Amino acid sequence: MAARRLRMLTCALAVSLAFAGRAEADEILFLNGDRLTGKIVSADGGKLTIKSETAGVVTVDLAKVKTFSTDEPIVIKTGDTTLSSKVTGGADGTVQVVPVAGGTPQVIALKDVAKINPPPVKWTGSFVANALVATGNSETENFGVSLNAVRRSEIDRITLGGAYYYGRQKEKDTDKHETTIDNWFIFITDWFGDYNLNVDAGVRATIYEGLFAEAKVELRYDSTPAPGAKKEDVRYLLGVGWSF
């Protein structure tokens, strides 16, 4: 009786492990009938990357894929549409997604898949501090700091920047220090002093594949312009282009 229970327990454990292993695997089915299991990592530029325990990280051509499936939600970008959903296999050259729980599966052609699990948008930039001190024929001290940051996505770009420069010079006759530079430069408004405001806003729309049209407005504002000059300059730009 004990041996029988042990055999039953062993069988149940084996079945559980088999189902668990299957539940953790995404699967790619190729047009030639081959299969590859693992974890789909990403896709971009017509290439699909999957991480397999047996083959490691493998990059395959989407044009050679018949269909694929996942056991966890992935992010799929097609044109201007981004979906987050589990994926099930479909007819040749397609997959199915269910964007809304309980909703009707939506068929996506593999040729329309632009990206899978694109990297998150992040800020990049730099911070610089500098100093210049001179002695001898002249006694000068100059200090400055600057900050630049950019957040760029496929549909927009946000740029922030600012700088502060300070300098002074020692008068030989009196040994007093005279301020020669005391300037702020920022991309956002400083309501308490002299400032420059630069604002760019635009929209880009795809016409066909890489062909696009764009419209842009550029505002340059100086709170203390030169005598006879206006505080603001505005430019309107219209254009067409080709991305490749």
Task: Summarize the structure in words.
The structure is a single chain. This protein folds into three domains: 2-116, no CATH class; 134-188, no CATH class; 189-244, no CATH class. Strands 1, 2, 3, 4, 5, 6, 7 and 11 form an eight-stranded antiparallel β-sheet that branches. A four-stranded antiparallel β-sheet has the order 12-13-14-15, with no helix packed on it. The model is unreliable at 15-23 (pLDDT under 50). A hairpin with a 2-residue loop joins strand 2 (35-44) and strand 3. Helix content is 9%, strand content 57%. The chain has one helix at residues 2-23, and strands at residues 26-30, 35-44, 47-52, 56-61, 65-69, 74-78, 81-85, 87-89, 94-97, 106-109, 115-116, 123-134, 140-152, 157-170, 177-186, 196-208, 211-222, 232-242. It is mainly β. The chain has one helix and 18 strands.
